[in-house]
Amino acid sequence: LSTRETLFFVDSYTNPGSVALRQAWVHGLPATRRDVFLDHEPDETAVKAQVERLRLLARERGSALAIGHPGTAALSVLDEGIPVLREEGFRLVSVRELIEHQRHHPSGDESRPPYDVLTLRTGRSGG
Questions:
Q1: Which pTM was predicted?
Q2: Per-state percent for the chain, helix, strand, coil, to nearest 5
């Protein structure tokens, strides 16, 4: 497989003026951006609130992506929360699968570049 078939890009979107996602798409690299930063505030209560935000966004849009740091409250909250989310019908998928889903089911979020500039190629799942 070529590099283009195995790589993808996730914009952490820590700066609302980021152009990284658009540039990835313009150059044909499968890409997406995070919707929720789980542990911007690292305490357990704040992380639980972010998981709830993730759940609501995914329900509304059909998918959502969260990022966080290893070794924080996010891991223990996710340990408890993932089984509950699965019971509610949510699936955890690879980033590559999420990108493919978003390509075929755009959210209508005008702050995201249009998916028609994204060229996906088949390749191994995951990333």
A1: 0.75
A2: 45, 10, 45
Q: How far apart are CA 48 and CA 69, in angstroms?
A: 14
Strand partners, 33: 11
SS3 32: strand
Here the tokens at position 2 are 């070529």
Q: Is the CB of residue 39 less than 8 Å from the CB of residue 50?
A: yes
Structure tokens at 88: 């509610």
Rounded-to-integer distance, Cα 44 and Cα 33, Å: 24
The predicted-structure confidence for 91-108, as pLDDT tens digits, reads as follows 999 999 999 888 877 765
Which of 95, 117, 115 lies closest to 106 in space, CA to CA?
Answer: 115
Round to whole Å and give the CA distance between 112 and 106: 9
